[in-house]
Amino acid sequence: MTLRPFASRTTSRRRLLGGAAAGTLGAATLAATGMPAAQAAPIRRQPAPTGAYRIDLHAHFLPPDYRASLLEHGHVTIGGYPTPQWSPEEAIGFMDYYGIQAQALSVSDPGVSYLSGREATDMARYCNTYAADLFRTHPTRFGAFAVLPMPDIPASIEETIHALDTLHLDGVVLLTAYNGVYLGDPRFEPLMIALNQRGAYVFVHPAAIPADAKPELPLPDFLEEFTFDTTRAATLMMVTGLTQRYPGIRFQLAHAGGTVPFLSHRISVASQTVLADLWPEELPKPSVLDMKNQISRFYYDTALSGSPAAMASVLAVTGRDHIVFGSDWPFSAATLPQTGDRDPTPGLSEIFDIEQRIEVEHHNPLRQLPRLAEAVNG
Predict the structure, then answer these.
(1) Which of 73, 93, 134, 208 is the most exposed place for a label (fewest CB within 10 A)?
(2) What is the pTM of this model?
(3) Distance set, CA 309 to CA 49, 149, 203, 297, 306 (Å)
């Protein structure tokens, strides 16, 4: 593909770290040489790609009425992060500065689950219609994942049908849990049937843990709890057989899968422990090989996880073709590198070369979202 150079423009958005980002991973060097860390050769960084080529599958939006409603209902922070401002113009400025060709937008936690009944269904319809309107005004810059009025399953099925079949959104965003009920629970089965019938791409985003269900630590949820909640949901989806029953659904796990890659062996050995004797008869009993296969089928995004440690862990459980780029903007604004060559994730170049980065940041996302791919490439 031909990569276009950045437009020369000034913007208040942060500049990136990064000129010549990454190369062979230190861990790989140690494995190959057997040398202790103090003697290992220094990491050689590969050059970073240039141009506006990235396709962002973990990017959030807050339409005006939705953001106003969040604040009205006391959601002044999301996962401990102050609820940010958002506008299409700011999003395009961010993308232009950081070499992002297009974003697939989604609503973050708490979705519309802080509302109920007609208020929730109306707000979901408002957000999804707002996103579809962006396709008309900025057809090559935005895609979107539909928010659903969960945990109302009948209303969520109706909104799924409207969002995917009528509005032609690119997929659906689901939170890891609703009112403490995690994905994988039988109550969500009718919705999964509808999603599977459509071969839907489903972005799984963590939800905040209720205060009475987590330790009292002086840390915001987005630092650690979000990753743990993604792990809980993914594990339950596998052990209840959801990911086996609905192979038509492609699930993207936020933030490099939380801790799923790191815990993959531990999760897989459940069938070799006393748990195997206690396993409910109505559920498929997981095997080590099957669990490893299910873990490998998830898609993992790089949002707030574009480090050699995180990516090496993901590559240990799946192929590079299951890694997609994510910025987590605007929630990640304060964490973006501030110097260098406008590379939002310079750590990726410590494990991927230029062609591999283009695969992860451009080709892999577009393979999953054909409508957006047609718009971008048309």
Answers:
(1) 73
(2) 0.84
(3) 21, 36, 23, 20, 9
Query: Does residue 201 contact residue 139 with C-beta atoms inside 8 Å?
Result: no
pLDDT value, residue 15: 32
pLDDT digits 0-9 by tens, 147-158: 999 999 999 999
Q: Write the pLDDT tens digit of every residue in 46-72.
A: 777 888 999 999 999 999 999 999 999
Say how far apart CA 131 and CA 152 lie, in whole Å: 22
Please tell me the distance from the alpha carbon of residue 194 to that of residue 312, in angstroms, as a whole number: 34
The span from the CA of 346 to the CA of 149, in Å, is 37
Pairing of strands 77-78, 81-82: antiparallel
CB-based contact 106:205 (threshold 8 Å): yes
The domain segmentation of the chain, as residue ranges, is 46-377
> SS3 for the chain, per residue?
CCCCCCCCCCCCCCCCCCCCCCECCHHHHHHHHCCCHHHCCCCCECCCCCCCCEEEEEEECCCHHHHHHHHHCCCCEECCEECCCCCHHHHHHHHHHHCEEEEEEECCCCCCCCCCHHHHHHHHHHHHHHHHHHHHHCCCCEEEEEECCCCCHHHHHHHHHHHHHHCCCCEEEEECEECCEECCCHHHHHHHHHHHHCCCEEEEECCCCCHHHCCCCCCCCCCCHHHHHHHHHHHHHHHCCHHHHCCCCEEEECHHHCCCCCCHHHHHHHHHCCHHHHCCCCCCCCCHHHHHHHHHHCEEECCCCCCHHHHHHHHCCCCHHHEECCCCCCCCHHHCCCCCCCCCCHHHHHCCCHHHHHHHHHHHHHHHCHHHHHHHHC
Domain 46-377 sits in which CATH superfamily? Metal-dependent hydrolases (3.20.20.140)
Instruction: Tell me how far apart the alpha carbons of residues 174 and 207 are, in angstroms, rounded to a whole number.
Output: 9
